[in-house]
Specification:
single chain; 175 residues; mainly alpha; Zincin-like; 3-stranded mixed sheet; 55% helix; binds zinc ion
């Protein structure tokens, strides 16, 4: 996917499902990285996304939506915490991996609640094909996502093709 299409897709996701991020600037860098697909960080009023070049070329649209939704959930949580609290959390996550696991699982649950469970599952499968497979310390497993999808009805999400930016904000709570 072209960079301009990637940015357009991320912006559509934000306006559809990430009310807490609306009005922020979006910066996307496509870089050569080998150990992860995408990362997000907030800096003032800007969302910085980094995406691996190889994956940007290789990922199909639904896979890309899955990883974008996951990273944007991180961004929403970071925004709620604010920079100071977020620094404290990063410090804690480095020292206590079990806390990081809980955070990643909470983020995946938020992705499913926002209605992107199928895309998250596509991303997990893609990831496990090309990288060291995720286990339950990295977030929800593929089995767990499938299980959640069987029990949940997507809510609070407009059909992806039918995006109206003026749609009222849905519940921003994802964790
Ligand atoms: Zn994550």
């Amino acid at each position: 996917m072209k960079k301009s299409d990637l940015i357009a897709l991320a912006k559509t996701l934000i306006s559809t499902s990430f009310p807490a991020l609306r009005g922020m600037k979006l910066k996307l860098k496509i870089i050569d990285i080998e150990d992860y697909v995408m990362a997000v960080r907030l800096e003032g009023k800007a969302i910085h996304l980094e995406l691996s070049r190889e994956d940007a070329v290789r990922m199909r649209r639904n896979v890309l939506i899955g990883v974008l939704a996951h990273e944007l959930c991180h961004a929403e949580e970071d925004r709620r915490h604010g920079p100071l609290l977020e620094a404290v959390f990063s410090w804690l996550y480095e020292r206590f991996p079990s806390l990081e696991t809980r955070m990643e699982r909470r983020i995946d649950i938020a992705v499913i609640r926002k209605g992107y469970g199928k895309e998250l599952l596509s991303f997990q499968r893609y990831h496990d094909l090309h990288y060291e497979p995720y286990d339950q310390t990295d977030g929800l497993t593929a089995e767990e996502i499938e299980e959640a999808l069987r029990h949940s009805v997507p809510r609070g999400r407009a059909p992806f093709r039918d995006v109206s930016p003026s749609r009222p904000a849905s519940s921003r709570n994802h964790g």
